[in-house]
Structure formats: structure tokens, C-alpha cells
Amino acid sequence: MTETVIAAKDVGRVYPSDSGDVHALREINFEVERGEFVALRGRSGSGKTTLLNCLGGLDSPSSGVIWIQGVDIATMEEVERTRWRRESIGFVFQQMGLLPSFSAYENLDVMARLGNVPRRERRDRILDTLERMGLKDYYDHRPYEMSGGQQQRIAIARALVTKPDLILADEPSSELDSETTHKVLAVLQESVRKDGVSILLSSHDPIVDEYADRIINLRDGQIDGAMAAKPNAL
Ligand code: ADP
Ligand code: MG
């Protein structure tokens, strides 16, 4: 039986402005199932970040409803929403948000603690996640001692360490060369296949199409050719 992890119905987001309202999202309708890897494609300004922020409860839509695992997130109390976000969602932001004075290990440890990863599992989980991202040797390095691409992989590792139900990733491969992009996407795909994680990942890089089960194209805040199937899966 399929389980719907994300359901968006008629979602719109308007940013008011003096020179006229900006419709960042209009009538967005789609679903993501458990264990599905969905790529959100679209050029700059198409609404990818706005949509991911709304889905993660960091921003609120101006209209429409978002259900995550069957719960209308607009009805959640703030405390509940924060706990849900930390335990069930892994975020990879464009601005990464790594703690600058903490090592790679400590950056993951903070997230593991906030996400209530059991104490006795934490260390192994952190080291294993760093290893999967090819960063085992960098566990004691601070973000400024690493390249942009390594920092981006720390940000992805941090999203994986809590074993979330859902990963929302905003252009997580923008700092990676194509070889590293392939490696990182393969790790994410493995989480989908093995652990039943659902992933919604935005990108304008066509490499992601090789790993995604489905591609959603955003254009000017609207879904273009909604629910398009992956061509080579047909
Ligand atoms: P993408 O992530 O695909 O580049 P965004 O979601 O960042 O797209 O932006 C979608 C549209 O909304 C763009 O036209 C952008 O200029 C506008 N926008 C985004 N954030 C804001 C904001 N805080 N205030 C006003 N307009 C915004
Ligand atoms: Mg963006």
C-alpha cells in the first residue's frame, strides 16, 4: 500500500510588493509517496525555495493546504511543529547553516541530539553518515577548514543523520563537481530504496534526473506537465 508523505492542494504564495504582488507559487497540486525520490526542477526564480520552505513549515502558503504524513501543517502548534521538523524532516538549505565553531562531527551531533537519536546509537550513526558522504577523514574539521563542496556534503550528512521520513533539499549539489554530485545522489537514492525515505530535491542540474523516480518542473510558480514520469522508467 502506498503512503502519501506530502500532499499539496492549491498551494499559492504571494509576496506583496509596492510594484505589484509577486506570485511565487500558484495552484500547486502534487503528492509524494513514501520511498519516492522526486526532483523539483526549474530555473532561478521559478519558486523552488518558496515551495520547499512552505513544505517544511518555515514559511506559510497564502492559500491552499499542505499535509505532511496526513497532518495539515497549518494546524500544528509551534512547539509540535518544531519537534516534528527536528525528528521527521531532514533539511538541506541553500545557505547550509553549519555551526562555524563546531567540527563536522559536532555539527551532526547537534542535529542528532535535537532529533532525539538514542544516545547509544549517536556516535556510530554520525561516523557512518560521514563515511557515506566521503568525509570520514574530516570529522574533526570545522566548516571554514573545508571546501564549499565538503561543507555542502556536511549539510547533507546532517540531514541524513536523524534518519528522517522526509528530506527536503534545496539545490544540494550546487557546490559539487559532477563526479561528487553522482556520489551524493547515489547515497540519497540508497536511503530512499533501503530506508523508505522520501526525498524532494530541487536542482537545475540535469544529473538529478538520472536518480529521481519522478520530476516535477516548476515554471513561474506553476507546475509544468505535472506528475511527469521518469522517461527511462517507462
Ligand atoms: P527559486 O528557488 O526557484 O530560485 P524562489 O522561490 O526563490 O525561486 O523565488 C520565486 C519568486 O518569488 C521569485 O520571483 C522571487 O523573486 C520571489 N521571492 C522569493 N522570496 C521573496 C521574498 N522574500 N520577497 C519577495 N519576493 C520573493
Ligand atoms: Mg532557490
What does this protein structure show overall?
Helices cover 32% and strands 26% of the residues. The chain has helices spanning 48-55, 78-88, 104-114, 119-132, 148-160, 178-195; strands at 4-15, 22-33, 37-41, 63-68, 71-72, 89-92, 166-170, 198-203, 214-219, 222-224. β4 and β5 form a beta hairpin. The longest helix has 18 residues, at 178-195. It is globular and about 50 Å long. Bound molecules: adenosine-5'-diphosphate and magnesium ion (MG).
Tell me the strand order in the biggest sheet. 6-7-8-3-9-10
Overall, the morphology is globular
Percent helix, as a range, is 25-40%
Question: What can be said about the biggest beta sheet?
Answer: 6 strands, mixed
Briefly, what is this?
With 234 residues, the protein is an alpha/beta fold.
Which characteristics define this entry?
disordered C terminus; 6 helices; binds adenosine-5'-diphosphate; binds magnesium ion; 234 residues
Give the arrangement of secondary structure elements:
Blueprint: E1 4-15, E2 22-33, E3 37-41, H1 48-55, E4 63-68, E5 71-72, H2 78-88, E6 89-92, H3 104-114, H4 119-132, H5 148-160, E7 166-170, H6 178-195, E8 198-203, E9 214-219, E10 222-224
Helix pairs in contact: 3-4, 3-5, 4-5
Bound molecules: adenosine-5'-diphosphate and magnesium ion (MG).
